[in-house]
Structures are given as C-alpha cells and as structure tokens.
Amino acid sequence: STQSGCGWTAGSNQSFAAITSGLSGSGTGTVNFSVSQNTSIYQRTATITVAGNSLTIYQIGASTTNPGNTS
C-alpha cells in the first residue's frame, strides 16, 4: 500500500500476464490483470509489480497427452 496522495505504477515483465486496468494511480487503487492460456509444454513465469511490491505468477505447461486418444 502507499500513503494517501503518493503516486504508484503497475507493470508486468511478460506479455502473457497483462495489466488490463490500473496502470497508475495515487493513494489507494485497484489493479486488474489477465493471464493468457499457456499452449506451450514449458512452464513460464511472469512478475507483476505494483508500487514496488511484486507478485510472481507460475503457469505450468500444457499437457502433451490427448485424453481422448486411448490407442
């Protein structure tokens, strides 16, 4: 949190975790973000930072098996 009247910004270091609203503000505010589906088999990581505080997102990779294929 920040002091009343103090400015802050929000950002993401990866495009798959995008800030959808609340890129900046003053005092109390709300930041919304969305995370797109990971179609790769590899895990990926993003960090969202708001007013110097970080949130790390770990997203597992997509499954390589097809549950509908039993052969």
Description of the structure:
The protein has no helices and six strands. It is mainly β and 71 residues long. The strands form two sheets. A four-stranded antiparallel beta sheet has the order 3-1-5-6, with no helix packed on it. A hairpin with a 2-residue loop joins strand 5 and strand 6. The N and C termini lie far apart (54 Å).
How is this fold's topology laid out?
Elements (H helix, E strand, L loop, with lengths): L6 E6 L4 E5 L2 E3 L5 E4 L8 E7 L2 E7 L12
Antiparallel strand pairs: 1-3, 1-5, 2-4, 5-6
Key features of this structure:
45% strand; mainly beta; two-stranded antiparallel ribbon; 71 residues; 0% helix; four-stranded antiparallel beta sheet; 6 strands
Q: Characterize the largest beta sheet: strand count, sense, and whether it forms a barrel.
A: 4 strands, antiparallel
Task: Bin the strand percentage.
Answer: over 45%
Helix content: under 10%
SS-derived structural category: mainly beta
Task: Give the SSE order as H and E letters.
Answer: EEEEEE
Average pLDDT, all residues = 91
> For the largest beta sheet, what order do the strands appear in spatially?
3-1-5-6
Approximate shape: elongated
Estimated radius of gyration: 17 Å
- How far is the first residue's CA from the last residue's CA? 54 Å
Number of strands: 6
Q: Low-confidence spans: pLDDT under 50, at least 5 residues?
A: none
